[in-house]
Amino acid sequence: MRAKRCGRCAGWLVLGFLLFLTAPAPTSWSPPLTPTATDTSVPAIGRTWPVGVRPAVLRGWEPPATVYGRGHRGVDLAAPAGAPVRTVAAGRVSFAGRVAGKGVVSVELTGTDLRTTYEPVTASVEKGAEVEAGEVVGTVAPTGSHCTTTCVHWGLRRGETYLDPLSLLPPWLLHRGPSRLLPVLGVPLPK
């Protein structure tokens, strides 16, 4: 009787193993929609540059290889001293004060887990203030810049992860130069 039961169990094990081997591969896996600390995707929610209309980017974003490694954790935008500094998207001011002798304004962006920072800035807002996209949060400080000329360092973080702040701006706002129309397939060009 016991041999019969073991034979039946062995049969089921063999059948299960064969089904496992012949089962189709699982479909592609999708990551969860909730962002993680290493999520580098950024929604293009910005509506304006922090300074000027299309300021020159003096130094771009260079992510460090390690937490304390060399790099540039933001972008430097050319701006004259006294120029207004605007928040690129709506949010709440989480910091307005001095850090290492430089004026800094940080804004937690509404509906996201992102925070932008602008420096060196003479703040015109206080911590806790609600700001709209394009609202002035201060002016470019005449001193304290790490650029060879006056500039604004614009940073973006998700938690402790630095991200490229230019990714907040939609492509049409980043584009320089005139628009170019392309021909529509099947429609002849005018002569």
From TrEMBL:
UniProt keyword annotations, A-Z: Signal
Coiled-coil positions: none
Signal peptide: 1-25
Transmembrane segments annotated in the record for this chain: none
UniProt keyword Transcription, yes or no: no
GO MF, any single term: metalloendopeptidase activity
Xref: InterPro entries: Cell_wall_metabolism_enzyme (IPR050570), Dup_hybrid_motif (IPR011055), M23ase_b-sheet_dom (IPR016047)
Pfam families: Peptidase_M23
This protein's name: Peptidase M23
Residue ranges of domain M23ase beta-sheet core in the record: 71-165
Keyword Signal (UniProt): yes
